[in-house]
Design goal:
The chain is mostly helical. The protein has six helices and no strands.
Length: 88
């Protein structure tokens, strides 16, 4: 894989994770790892962010994306905030 692309992805991940709640870091890292392996990033050399915007390109990561969405959504849900954020 291209070292420059990996470095850009790592920088993007670091920036994103520094702004994110700690409970969803694991789900975010799983999503990032999944997205790095799809053809859109590997063969077409697009950024992870560009590939995530296209639902067809990011289809192999749908389950991981849903887990991340549920984690983030649970932080906004008042009922879940009282009970605590689910671990994924």
């Amino acid at each position: 894989s291209d070292p420059k692309q990996s470095q850009q992805t790592t920088q993007y991940a670091t920036q994103t994770l520094s702004k994110m709640a700690k409970k969803c870091n694991e789900a975010a890292l799983s999503l990032l790892a999944c997205m790095e392996k799809i053809d859109c990033v590997m063969k077409q050399k697009k950024s992870v962010e560009e590939c995530m915007k296209d639902p067809i390109e990011s289809d192999p990561c749908t389950a991981v994306r849903n887990a991340y969405y549920n984690c983030k959504h649970s932080q906004l849900n008042m009922r879940t905030r009282i009970r605590g954020v689910r671990q994924y």
